[in-house]
Amino acid sequence: MAAAQRHRLAVAGLGKIARDQHLPALARSEAFELAATADPAGGLPEVDHFDALERLLAERPDVTALSLCTPPQVRYPLARAALQAGRHLLLEKPPGQTLGEVEALRALAEAAGVSLFATWHSRFAPAVPRARDWVAGHRVERVRIAWKEDVRRWHPGQRWIWQPGGFGVFDPGINALSILTAVLPRPLRVVSATLEVPENCAAPIAARLSMTDDAGVAIEAELDFRQEGPQTWDMAFEGPEGAITLQAGGSRLSLDPPEGAPAMIGEYDAIYRRFAELIGRGESEVDVAPLRLVADAFLVGRSRPTEAFHD
Amino acid sequence: MAAAQRHRLAVAGLGKIARDQHLPALARSEAFELAATADPAGGLPEVDHFDALERLLAERPDVTALSLCTPPQVRYPLARAALQAGRHLLLEKPPGQTLGEVEALRALAEAAGVSLFATWHSRFAPAVPRARDWVAGHRVERVRIAWKEDVRRWHPGQRWIWQPGGFGVFDPGINALSILTAVLPRPLRVVSATLEVPENCAAPIAARLSMTDDAGVAIEAELDFRQEGPQTWDMAFEGPEGAITLQAGGSRLSLDPPEGAPAMIGEYDAIYRRFAELIGRGESEVDVAPLRLVADAFLVGRSRPTEAFHD
Fold first, then answer.
1. Distance, CA of A298 to CA of A291 (rounded, Å)
2. Which of A59, A156, A173, B53 is deepest in the core (most CB within 10 A)?
3. A300 and chain B: CB distance < 8 Å anywhere?
């Protein structure tokens, strides 16, 4: 695709995920070019910048698509403004603070006739399709998820994570749930959950979920934001014919113990290719299954106060 | 309809709501006759009784419909068994512990070709259609909900309410949310919530929710299970052209201060008429909007431990 035909896209919210993943993927994209940014805290050299998204939408009618990378708490009014201004919209995960926000955005996108893409980046990890193929061909009786990372290392100073609507340990944990719901063929139900909430925070720092489906698969997930030393993002599908283990957030299937952060290589390149496809076909992709599992964990869960967390 | 043509229906779960509402409504019903009951704690004189629903389903193929009135924690496997046995299914509210359970039941009913009716009895309160008509013809800027009752008076000894999946104050509060979502025309979003959870319970004893919609209506709900003295189940819709107030759980529109319990007169008669209609048309009615608001309140909420509750 020639440069002149690329979709002009703006990025709103220039925090860690935008700078680490979206901007490099856009620099490599054949389908999109970064045409503008919006963030009250300032922009990038040589890219047209707006402090407020509303001004960007008003002054840059040539920008036809937007990636929204802000924390979840401020996302809904910005998403609504973009859709009402007729722009295609890509949402970083989670797609909203609540299921109600996502349903409202789905309706707005449909009314505006634009594409809405609620992304789950971990679903684009290289080992996920291979795991799905394996699960389709084998009986699975048990799934074990261990998603344990050091919040001080990966989310330094991100206070929004601990505030209401910030998801706490479900911010990384929903990545595991997005892989799980993409790999297992049947709808999942949360059977029980325990949520550990620091006494000075609104969101859990650790959670343990028991889930199942109508085939009786026993799924246990341990999510923890207090993991020092080696970091763990593993998911094992086990049955009488063998097992397959995703490691390092789905970036590999090897049997070695994982070290370091999930590589996320290619996840965002694939996300932007998929966004271009959706726009081309006039379609949206909005799967709330991972967010619904988090909501259900709260509905059926037992919260336990735990010691205060200080960054 | 002649008696011989009535649907033979079984009631599973002979607790308070079954005895107070379902059995009297069934005794008056022209569309259904009570043919059997299931409850591990024993049955009724002169009605065929089974300790286990599975046996009822196996031994009474003539029973074509089931009302499920158990606490939410044990409902899913019973509901699934009934649907897989090809029976039309009426669910007392809430329709499940989690959204995932309700979605799974919806899929099972569709696969089995039977009617699934997730009831919200308060929607059948006499003043609800009049409130909906009023709201359709007037601008609403503000909704105030006060749903305050004495749990010791209305739920004596019902320990399941305080256990995980028991909903706590949302057990009555979801009635208010079912009226609200039936009266307001636009989808609602939870903006913030505070949940007071007794230190010896898994579910909240009080909650305060702020909600809105895309027209900017400001909705405040105060739910409290600790209300002694006069009991309150009120919902006021207010705007520049006036206000309408539902009182006593939607059973009247008068301006007098409400006293005593919501009358619930006719709610369950209307529910069984609607169930017969759905069966006749081969349709289901499953609206998760009230349950989604509760889930979203947990997602975006801030929990506060409060003093232990003892029945």
1. 11
2. A173
3. yes
Q: Which chain A residues touch B104 with a CB distance below 8 Å?
A: 187, 189, 214
Q: Is A305 on the interface with B (CB under 8 A)?
A: yes
Residue B173 has pLDDT above 60, yes or no: yes
Q: Does A190 touch chain B (CB under 8 A)?
A: yes
CB atoms within 10 A of CB B244: 19
For residue B101, the model assigns a pLDDT of 96
State the ipTM, two decimals.
0.89
Q: Please say if the pLDDT value at position A146 is more than 90.
A: yes
A122-264+294-306: which CATH architecture?
2-Layer Sandwich (3.30)
CATH 3.30.360.10, chain B: domain bounds: 122-264+294-306
DSSP labels, B120-151: -GGGGSTHHHHHHHHHHHS---EEEEEEE-BH
Q: Which pair of structure tokens corresponds to residue A299?
A: 């509905």
Minimal CA separation from A62 to chain B, in Å:
26
Active-site residue (options: A22, A93, A123, A148): A93
For A96, B193, B208, B222, B236, the CA distances from B219, given in Å and listed in that order, are 20, 12, 11, 10, 10
pTM higher than 0.95, yes or no?
A: no
CATH number of the domain located at residue range(s) B7-118 in this protein: 3.40.50.720
Domain with CATH 3.40.50.720 in chain B: 7-118
